[in-house]
Design goal:
globular, alpha/beta, 9 helices
Length: 220
């Protein structure tokens, strides 16, 4: 018999993909449709990147970053079906989208110690609720045991246009290179992931493809 603290009691839908592929919007909509909790794993890396910068630490100073990580306290919660996270009692709000955060999050996310700490926090969400979690290593690392895995992709040109529409000017190709080449949990397609190219699809069309596949796989 499973218990309330047994992670196998709750289901996890993993949605991975590169920057600006649409995975966040898809994951949020799927979670709403299913009544699951939506978890943006990237927000955890962003909030710690923000905290590193707020503390005046150079993100490339590994030792200083890890000293801050060792004493940082992450508080994870949930409000209206969306997972929340704070660090040392602070929430950055719009600070998550700051230009310096965008420029440094891949550096912070590449540290194995950071990933180990935050992956544990991500897995903890599943102990209390069914979740739809999006990121870059959800199907390959965080919930590698889940039978429900998706990889949302789009052409580099389309993804760059989407970033510009959001007011973000970072290089998609450079972000892809960093995410795919890091030693710790690089961006990759899980062996049994259902791949969807969103380049020519609307958000609703991608969501329907995900839901249809979940129904086919027996998730109701």
């Amino acid at each position: 018999m499973s218990t309330a603290s047994d992670p196998t009691e709750h289901r996890a839908i993993a949605i991975d993909g590169p920057a600006a592929s649409g995975k966040s919007s898809v994951a949020r909509r799927v979670a709403e449709r299913l009544g699951f909790v939506f978890v943006n794993s990237g927000a955890m890396y962003r909030i710690f990147t923000w905290w590193v910068l707020e503390n005046g630490i150079d993100c490339s100073d590994r030792e200083a970053v890890l000293r801050l990580l060792a004493k940082a306290q992450f508080e994870c919660g949930e409000v209206d079906g969306v997972a929340t996270v704070a660090v040392d009692g602070r929430e950055p709000g719009e600070g998550l989208s700051r230009e310096d955060v965008n420029a440094n999050v891949s550096v912070i996310a590449a540290y194995p110690e950071v990933r180990e700490r935050l992956v544990a926090a991500q897995r903890a969400h599943r102990q209390t609720a069914d979740v739809v979690m999006e990121g870059r290593d959800i199907g390959t690392v965080v919930f590698a045991d889940s039978p429900y895995k998706f990889y949302i992709d789009a052409s580099e040109e389309v993804r760059q246009q989407r970033r510009r529409a959001e007011g973000i000017e970072d290089s998609i190709s450079e972000r892809d290179r960093k995410d795919s080449s890091r030693v710790a949990s690089p961006l990759a397609v899980a062996d049994n992931a259902f791949v969807i190219d969103s380049s020519e699809l609307t958000l609703d069309e991608v969501v329907e493809k995900v839901l249809a596949k979940l129904r086919q796989d027996g998730l109701s």
